[in-house]
Amino acid sequence: MTSNWITTRAWLLMLPLLIVMIAIIGWPLIDTVRLSFTDAKLVGTQGSFVGLDNYVKILSGSNFQRSLITTFWFAILSVSAEMVIGVLAALLLNQRFYGRSALRALMILPWALPTVVNATLWRLIYNPEYGALNALLVQIGMLDSYRSWLGEPGTALASLILADCWKNFPLVALIALAALQAVPRDITAASMVDGAGVWSRFRFVTLPYLAGPLMVALVLRTIEAFKVFDIIWVMTRGGPANSTRTLSILVYQEAFSFQRAGSGASLALIVTLLVTVLAVAYAALIRKTAGAS
Amino acid sequence: MERQSLPFTIFIHIAALVLAIVILAPVVWLFVMSISSTPDLVAKPLHWWPDTVDLSRYGVLLSSVANSAGEAFVASLFNSLKVAGMATVAALAVAIPSAWAVSRTPSVGWSLYAVIATYMLPPVALAVPLYMTLAWFGLLNNIFGLALVYLTILAPFTTWLLKSGFDSIPREIESAAVMDGARLDQILRLITLPLAAPVMATAALFAFLLAWDEFFYALLFTSDQRAKTLTVAIADLAGGRVSDYGLIATAGVLAALPPLLIGLFMQRALISGLTSGGVKG
Asked: Considering just the CA atoms, what is the radius of gyration of chain A in Å?
């Protein structure tokens, strides 16, 4: 068989996937770009060309800037907490203790729980009148009276981050645990004989094995956190007083609640661009980490 | 293996207990809420365990009486099953040949990066044109339309997962069959696909879970019992005027049950999929 034929055959086998991807991803993406230069409405008018008007309005408006900051806070805080707690949990799960395999099995629970169910569950836990968190904190004396965790701008975002963290740190832990199990035992033993302390053992023996997989987990989690929609929509819908309105929620409101398809599309493309920049920066970082270790 | 000091062993056990409580408490509480009577749930101080176990809400939600809360819930349950099932089958149908082609043909490998890149796209980037197109074809609030849209998520993901699965099957086995004069369809059907059965099953499970979990597109593109999925039905309950928190919790338990069971019983397959997907990137 000639290599020409093999390449042609590969493209033929990929044809169904390519057709589907062009029809439901490629074309809509191009159409979003077209719409972003118009004042089209979601239903009814096709809209007319308005140039960069949408972009100018969005980038100079306070709504976008505020949502951008909220999104950054959400992403940075939830992902860093998930990484730290996830690695600590993985180090723990790599020790010997009774019930270890049962606990490892339990780690899959938060990951498997559907995001919307998780959001609903935490919404019930945070309930201002009957919620379990209020009841618990008052009963152990850490809180004087019931609070509206999701109803106050000061605590809403932090409460969301906690709920997101609970669902996602176990995945980081499982990835880190798999990497830890690849660390050869004789290396750890040898470093102990050489008198390495706990920290330097972690830093110089264990961490190099963790770096690659953790980097990938970091990238995927950051991109997911940047796109966050479900958990916020179910728990606060972006409120109170827009204090949890991340970029995806803002796009939803613009394009679907207010039916402004044109400016909704420009906003969506700005978000896409930000995610792309993140992904590219991370890809470079991963390559560097892979090259170093 | 080194011996551990007693204080360290105690510390590890306490930490493990804390981790177990952190993981279990919210899930157990969801279940307790679903079997507690309303007076128990609104009591102050809160009753952490119900005086009498109340299973009536499961009956309410799983009943098919016309115009009841149960009818809407059961309809959304079946919509979720159908949409996730159809999207999974369609995703595998397009992903299997492409993943094999990419795995065996290095010269087209770059196309895989294009596929992965689309997986990073935020759904909002496609939502407006998809909405307009579905409306044009009359596929809004339609399970076929929603399943088609889910391919935007499932097809790239399964292709990526299957490609690394095919990579681990030695090409030499296929070359040997070629020498013996086997045609491509015979090689795939008799040799490669049977060997790839475990990874295909994992990919199917992941795809099904992704579709079962999906909320954003379902919220946008469905509006009533004809197509509303479970996630949207639950969000409606949570955000609506339902004052029975136990009923919301029960809906949550029922929606979480299939993925939790899959998660617990298919643990090994899922974790190897998660970590290999994570490691290979």
From this structure: 24
pLDDT (tens digit, 0 to 9) for every residue of chain B, 281 residues total?
456 788 999 999 999 999 999 999 999 999 999 999 888 888 878 888 888 888 889 988 888 777 777 888 999 999 999 999 999 999 999 999 999 999 988 888 888 888 878 888 899 999 999 999 999 999 999 999 999 999 999 999 999 889 988 988 888 888 888 888 888 888 888 888 888 888 898 899 889 999 999 999 999 999 998 999 999 999 998 887 677 889 999 999 999 999 998 888 877 776 766 665 543 33
Residue B15's alpha-carbon distances to A167, A186, A203, B12, B21, in angstroms, are 19, 26, 21, 5, 10
Report the alpha-carbon distance of residue B140 to residue B134 in Å, rounded: 5
Query: With an 8 Å Cβ cutoff, are A130 and B122 in contact?
Result: no
Q: Considering CB atoms only, which of B23, B126, B270 is closest to A28?
A: B126
The size of chain A, in residues, is 293
Q: What is the dihedral of CA B181, B184, B190, B194, to 10 degrees?
A: 140
For residue B64, give how far its alpha carbon lies from the nearest alpha carbon of chain A (Å): 23
Q: Cβ atoms within 10 A of the Cβ of A223, count?
A: 20
pTM of the predicted model as reported, rounded to 2 decimal places: 0.91
Nearest CA in chain A to B211: A114
* Structure-token match 């042609």, residue found: A8
CATH code that applies to domain A33-292: 1.10.3720.10
The domain ranges of chain B are 1-54, 64-280
Q: How far is CA A226 from CA A25, B7, B192, B216, in A?
A: 20, 42, 39, 15
Facing A216 at nearest CB: one of B118, B127, B279: B279
Q: How many CB atoms lie within 10 A of CB A291?
A: 7
| Cis before A240? omega within 30 | yes
Q: How many CB pairs under 8 A join A and B?
A: 277
Inter-chain touch B2–A189, beta carbons under 8 Å: yes
Q: What is the DSSP letter of A202?
A: I
Burial of A102-133, coded b for 16+ CB within 10 Å and e otherwise, reads: ebbbbbbbbbbbbbbbbbbbbbbbbbeebbbb
Residues 48-87 on A with a CB inside 8 Å of B are: none
Chosen CATH of B64-280 out of 3.30.530.20, 1.10.760.10, 3.40.190.10, 1.10.3720.10:
1.10.3720.10
Give the start-end residues of each E strand in chain A.
Answer: none
Decide if A216 touches B, using CB distance below 8 A: yes
Q: Identify which of B29, B259, B263 has the shortest CB distance to residue A125.
A: B29
> For chain A, which residues make up each domain, given as ranges?
33-292
| A5 interfacial to chain B (CB closer than 8 Å) | no
Question: Given the structure tokens 């009486």, which residue do they identify?
Answer: B65
Distance from CA of B65 to the nearest CA of A (A): 25
DSSP A49: B
ipTM: 0.91
Which residues from chain A sit within 8 angstroms of residue B22, using beta carbons? 166
